[in-house]
Alanyl-tRNA synthetase (Thermus arciformis), 373 residues
Amino acid sequence: MRLYQLDSYATRFQARVERAWTDEKGHYAVLSQTLFYPESGGQPADRGVLRGPFGEVQVLHAYEEEKAFGDVVHVLSAPVPEGVEVEGEIDWPRRFRHMQRHTAQHLLSQALLRAGGYHTVAVSLDSPVCTVDIEEEAEEAGVLKAEALANFAVYADYPVEAFYVSEEELAHYPLRRPPKVRGKVRLVRIGDFDLAACGGTHLKTSAQAGPIKVLKWERYKGGTRVYFTAGWEALEDYHAKHALLARLALAFSTNPLELEKPIRKLQEELYALKGENQALKEALVKALLARALEEGALLVPDPVLGELAKALLAWGEKTFLLVSPEGRFALLGPRRQEVLERLRALGAKGGGKEVVQGALPKERVVEALGLLS
Ligand SMILES: [Zn+2]
């Protein structure tokens, strides 16, 4: 018996261990009844504990032995004996978040249908950032309207109820999605806003799912993936983003909603400086080129070492050694292997094909510059 379908707010239950086993991956148990929701329909499994004569073991995961109908298998931190009575308790704060995500997804899927004729084909509720995949290529106006509509449904405080109907009766119910199971079908109704076949856990009223915030949407498999967050997790997201904006606003001495202005200014200044820096480097390379051609070995500033070496490649018949005051060096030309051997004797390390690059101890820079002569 799946107790979570009778009362999704119950947190403790009594049961008997009907089957228990262990394999190389872990310890498992099937109970006579359970509140642990097994992972399905995009909603993650519950976690919690089992208590009994053996003490307390953690329930790490729960899954359906066979999809939709099979027993709920509890994955445990330690083995439990068959036949004993246990008390189970689910991790309620975690479950409540899952119920917020899941109920919000019902509301958003219906809102997407009403706002843009968008049909939900898949959902993921594995993390605070949940997704609804729709068949259609969504328009911005449609998604924003759906977000507003979903939140209106939150504020309308609709009751959420689950009930069973037979397969024959189904035709009388205008379902948002046809059921995936046969036989007796569980329907979940949210006021007169949404009606869908679902075996999951839901809140008592739509109001408990709010707020519902669409975070972004993108093209996905010919349709659209809509990202959203709901309930406590939406509030936490708002808190984190508000705190971040407040810190940035303080750093830029402005108010959070005017942050774009100083950031854009900073970007423009950065681009201008980068351009200026490049021009200066090029001028410096040009100025040093003449001296390098004349002297062969040259002390050069670190930032232009590589560029100057590249420019000198045009004079392939001559060997050049450029060394920076910090000890970085670039070596090129026909005698480079022989010079490299001598640099190594000074403690240099490095390699390369046309241009050998590396570093040597700072205190050997003057000595290194004398190696070419
Ligand atoms: Zn549901």
Q: What stands out?
A: The chain is about 30% helix and 30% strand.
